């Protein structure tokens, strides 16, 4: 399970880094990102966690496209 945890942390850090150039500002982006990750904090099934990571990767690609 520690592999999934490290993947989640890496995606979160990458999103926060990309959020520095977000058009509405870093504080806006950080609070929304934090809420999204906090909402998924209670996930225990490995499949659910992988789906959440995939969703975060998709968001990351969309932000890079901005």
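Q: What amino acid sequence fits the structure above?
A:
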């Amino acid at each position: 399970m520690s592999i999934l945890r490290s993947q989640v942390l890496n995606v979160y850090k990458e999103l926060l880094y990309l959020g520095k150039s977000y058009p509405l500002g870093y504080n806006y982006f950080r609070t929304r990102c934090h809420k999204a990750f906090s909402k998924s904090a209670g996930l225990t099934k490995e499949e659910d966690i992988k789906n959440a990571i995939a969703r975060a990767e998709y968001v990351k690609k969309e932000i890079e496209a901005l």
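Q: And what stands out in the fold?
A: Residues 46-65 form the longest helix (20 residues).
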